């Protein structure tokens, strides 16, 4: 998520950057062409190749590379807040008001800047739009248009050099570093022409400087001063300290949400889900879901997950202040979850050992089997020859039951004739296979020669194609049977 205000952008139309003496209707204004309408198909590669990156920062060049506006906003309020905490008594009314206003201005960012304007995940009535625009200004994180432009670039170019707060450059960089110095590279193009048509966005952009002073400092101070006479506490706690907390709460969406947690929907990029981040960021901590389904008005999809921004938007819809709440189809959300679950299972599966493929085992005649069974404990079960020497002393039913079937076919006894063995026993026995009896598997045992652990396997699509496209081979060999079994 973006932060730190810039009252004017270099990409905004020149007429938009000036305060007009005459208010024009949207019909009188020329249609703004989407900035990404004519970009090349290989835009990212083209930019990385043709756009010159600023030179690396050194101690000698640091002072010339600092963004002094952002530096001031990120250092002066914390210093003032610390001074106030050390010298001004905190009244409980001011503390409560500071927490309330923290959530109000936080929702201005999460429900307004982020989910309404940057992602258009729901529609808001004009009163709600103005309220969110004013609350968002109180967070002092830039105008709606500037903020949304950066955030849309972040989503489009996540984890690349065109991402304005690329998490791959480190926790510190994505948290505040990208704001403290001049950008090393111009952020990737992102269209915000739709926001230029909004009367609320244009109004906030035009009066942004006055709004951040009024909503960021004057209003919270005045409430405490006029309400219970705590002017100093209102300024240092409800205004200044509250602002610092709102800033770093938002910054954590760029840093902590790309570092802490799990990836239950997609692991292609860095965003992650975690409850701690959700508590810190007004519900924006289920970031893996958000990056996978950015147009969804929710971050948390389960009822017990903390997402006050989602609850606020839903309440507004009940009150008739919001509508058209967008939700990604549940079927597709579950596909994303299933994909990651299968991937985790595949990783576990790949670290396990399974029974040797029957195509890799030698085919042994009955006579050769009987002959070799006199040298070691070999039994036949479901057409496979097993070396059970290591199981004789470990067999729960006693060694005599195994010795009884050495050199014989124990299929009936193993499959319920004497004892209907567990899946674990079947899986363990399959690891003892050393050959295939000539003549194939007996009729009716086709489903029994596959160990339970291998009846349900996770396979990549390329593996399925390879398996279905290859001709089945027989396990025949001209190599001497004694050598293969020996």
TrEMBL record:
One Gene Ontology term from the biological process aspect of the record: unsaturated fatty acid biosynthetic process
Cofactor annotation remark: Expected to bind 2 Fe(2+) ions per subunit.
Pfam families, A to Z: Cyt-b5, FA_desaturase
GO MF annotation, one: stearoyl-CoA 9-desaturase activity
Domain (Cytochrome b5 heme-binding) ranges: 358-438
Catalytic activity reported: octadecanoyl-CoA + 2 Fe(II)-[cytochrome b5] + O2 + 2 H(+) = (9Z)-octadecenoyl-CoA + 2 Fe(III)-[cytochrome b5] + 2 H2O
E.C. no: 1.14.19.1
EC top class named in words: oxidoreductase
Protein name: Acyl-CoA desaturase
């Amino acid at each position: 998520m973006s932060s730190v205000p810039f009252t004017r952008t270099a990409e905004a139309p020149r007429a938009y950057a000036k305060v007009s003496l005459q208010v024009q209707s949207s019909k009188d204004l020329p249609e703004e062409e989407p900035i990404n309408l004519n970009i090349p198909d290989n835009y990212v590669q083209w930019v990385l190749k043709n756009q010159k990156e600023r030179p690396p920062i050194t101690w000698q060049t640091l002072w010339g590379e600092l963004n002094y506006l952002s530096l001031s906003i990120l250092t002066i309020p914390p210093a003032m807040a610390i001074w106030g905490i050390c010298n001004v008594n905190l009244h409980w009314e001011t503390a409560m008001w500071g927490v309330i206003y923290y959530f109000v201005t936080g929702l201005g960012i999460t429900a307004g800047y982020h989910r309404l304007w940057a992602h258009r995940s729901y529609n808001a009535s004009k009163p709600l739009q103005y309220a969110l625009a004013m609350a968002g200004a109180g967070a002092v994180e830039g105008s709606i248009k500037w903020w949304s432009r950066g955030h849309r670039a972040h989503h489009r170019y996540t984890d690349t050099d065109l991402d304005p707060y690329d998490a791959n450059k480190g926790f510190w960089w994505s948290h505040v570093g990208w704001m403290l110095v001049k950008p090393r590279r111009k952020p990737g193009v992102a269209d915000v022409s739709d926001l230029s048509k909004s009367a609320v966005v244009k109004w906030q952009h035009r009066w942004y400087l006055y709004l951040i002073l009024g909503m960021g400092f004057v209003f919270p101070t005045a409430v405490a001063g006029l309400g219970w006479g705590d002017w100093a506490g209102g300024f240092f706690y409800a205004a200044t300290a509250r602002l610092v907390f709102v800033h770093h709460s938002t910054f954590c969406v760029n840093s902590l949400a790309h570092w802490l947690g799990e990836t239950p929907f997609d692991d292609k990029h860095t965003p992650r889900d975690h409850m701690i981040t959700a508590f810190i960021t007004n519900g924006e901590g289920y970031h893996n879901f958000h990056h996978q389904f950015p147009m969804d008005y929710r971050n948390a999809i389960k009822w017990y997950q903390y997402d006050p921004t989602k609850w606020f938007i839903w309440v507004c819809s009940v009150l008739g202040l919001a509508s058209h709440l967008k939700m990604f189809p549940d079927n597709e959300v579950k596909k994303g979850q299933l994909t990651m679950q299968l991937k985790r299972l595949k990783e576990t599966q790949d670290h396990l050992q399974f029974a040797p493929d029957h195509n890799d085992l030698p085919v042994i005649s009955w006579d050769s089997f009987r002959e070799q069974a006199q040298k070691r404990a070999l039994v036949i079960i479901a057409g496979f020859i097993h070396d059970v020497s290591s199981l004789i002393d470990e067999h729960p039913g006693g060694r005599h039951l195994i010795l009884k079937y050495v050199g014989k076919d124990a299929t009936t006894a193993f499959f319920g004739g004497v004892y209907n063995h567990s899946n674990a026993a079947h899986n363990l026995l399959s690891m003892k296979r050393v050959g295939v009896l000539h003549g194939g598997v007996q009729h009716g045992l086709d489903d029994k020669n596959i160990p339970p652990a291998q009846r349900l396997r996770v396979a990549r699509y390329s593996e399925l194609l390879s398996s279905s496209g290859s001709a089945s081979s027989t396990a025949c060999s001209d190599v001497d049977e004694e050598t293969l079994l020996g």
